[in-house]
Amino acid sequence: MMMRSTRRLALGLLAGLGLGLSATAAQAELRLGALYPFSGELAVLGDESWRGLELAVEERNAAGGIRGERIVLVRGDAVDNNQAVAEARRLISVSGVKAIFGTYSSARSQVASQVAELARIPYFEMGAVSDAITERRFRYLFRTNPTARDMAARSIEMVVNAVAPGLSVDPKALRVAIIHEDSLYGTTVGRYQSSYAREQGLNVVETLPYPANIVDMSSLILRLQNARVDVVLQTSYQNDTVLFFRQAREANFRPRAIIGGGGGYSLRETMQAVGQDVIDGALNIDFTQYAINPQAAPGIEEFVAAYRAKYGMEPRSGHSLGNYVGAKVFLDAIAAARSFSADDIRTAVAAVDVPDGQTAEGWGVKFGPDGQNERARMMGMQWQDGRLVTVFPPEAAVSALRLRR
Fold first, then answer.
1. Of the candidates 35, 31, 72, 70, the residue with the CA atom closest to the CA atom of residue 50
2. For the whole model, what pTM was predicted?
3. How would you write 67-126 as a 3-class SS string?
């Protein structure tokens, strides 16, 4: 009888020891959420954004993690707004993440970040551009990337200071059209473009929103032709970018300049879908791309080398770089925080102060009272010979602007 009791006691002690070891192992992992559209129509850019975060985390883990704890990324698929909300809730309540990183899509970031704010979980945005996201002044929301306002301002700046001089014409003589998909993203950029164009005295002859899931742009293109448009400003995702170029070619619509906004114009897959001969010459306002003067973006060459080594290819767009730089900023802040509590992490992030020109994006980091990085800005690129290269501003350029006179 005594032997049985002793045996039961020994087994109980071993079981307790095992539970203790499991708890210790669990404490050695820092779980962070990664909320992106991994499926659906935005999956390519969602995955490209994820790659930047993944590279930054692997780099940090290789250096010992944070406070000796290995970072584990828990993925959430924000395929649409409803799913973004559901996945944010799952990451917080089921997976127990200490923060959420994401998200690329403005509409999905808008709703998912509200879930995180109510749960007092830091939400780190590194890709969505709608100004409305940070205008709510949430306590636990921070964004490293530039905004729709920045995109709009840079596009008008390029018309005035690059396109018009390149064509040897007065900017006010150009007939400009603003077209955009009608979600939160496109609508916000289009509204700011209209405002900035008026300030510069530009002649905007058409402003045409269209459904984000549009399948035929022939009537829109006909209106642009009838309006004798010189410069088209398009804010779009990938599918509508491809559709615009294909149907513009079919209609033989060739404006003197096309300036895109965002990932639809940045993706290598877009160039492959429409053809190099079709897209060459198109301009784009977006996050920094990897073909940029390294002196203006310290660390860009190391990022590209790490990307190639892991994925066996060139970066598909600048979204991976933007998420890589943003993730490094936030991970450094978490490491500097007094603890993993939301308030300690928030305090550390709010104290970040990276001077202008000191990141691989070419800008610095300093968060305003609304959580927006006040030192972020867009770059101007152009498709040339099948590559998207930086052409504006001059200090970041690796090639001269090419325009059809």
1. 35
2. 0.85
3. CCEEEEEEEEECCCHHHHHHHHHHHHHCCCCCCEEECCCHHHHHHHHHHHHHCCCCEEEC
State residue 10's pLDDT score: 46
pLDDT computed for residue 286 by the predictor: 92
pLDDT computed for residue 250 by the predictor? 97
Q: What is the pLDDT of residue 23?
A: 39
Q: What does the pLDDT read at residue 4?
A: 47
Give the three-class secondary structure for 292: coil
At residue 262, the pLDDT reads 78
* Cβ partners under 8 Å of residue 199, min gap 6: none
Sign of the four-CA dihedral 12, 13, 14, 15: positive
Q: Among candidates 89, 60, 83, which has minimal Cα distance to 73?
A: 60
- Strand locations in 279-393 (E): 283-286, 353-354, 365-366, 379-384, 387-392
CA angle 24, 26, 32 (to 5 degrees): 140
For the chain, list residues with pLDDT below 70: 1-27, 405
Length of the chain in residues, anyone?
Answer: 405
Tell me how far the alpha carbon of residue 371 is from its chain's centroid: 16
| Closest to 331 (Cα-Cα) out of 203, 142, 186 | 142
Helix and strand numbers, DSSP H then E, in the chain: 16, 14
For tokens 């929301």, what's the residue? 141
Structural domains of the chain, with CATH:
29-146+297-374 (3.40.50.2300), 149-286+380-396 (3.40.50.2300)
Give the single-character DSSP code of 35.
E
Q: In this predicted structure, what is the pLDDT of residue 351?
A: 98
- Tell me 31's DSSP state: E
The reported pLDDT for the residue numbered 26 is 44
Q: What's the pLDDT score for residue 37?
A: 97
- Give pLDDT, residue 230: 98
Residues 6+ apart with CB under 8 A from 163: 171, 174, 231, 256, 257, 259, 283, 401, 403
- Token pair in block for residue 158: 């390029």
- The pLDDT value given to residue 405: 67
User: CB under 8 Å to 154, separation ≥6 — which residues?
Assistant: 285, 377, 378, 379, 380, 392
The pLDDT of residue 267:
86
Q: Tokens in use for 192?
A: 């700011």
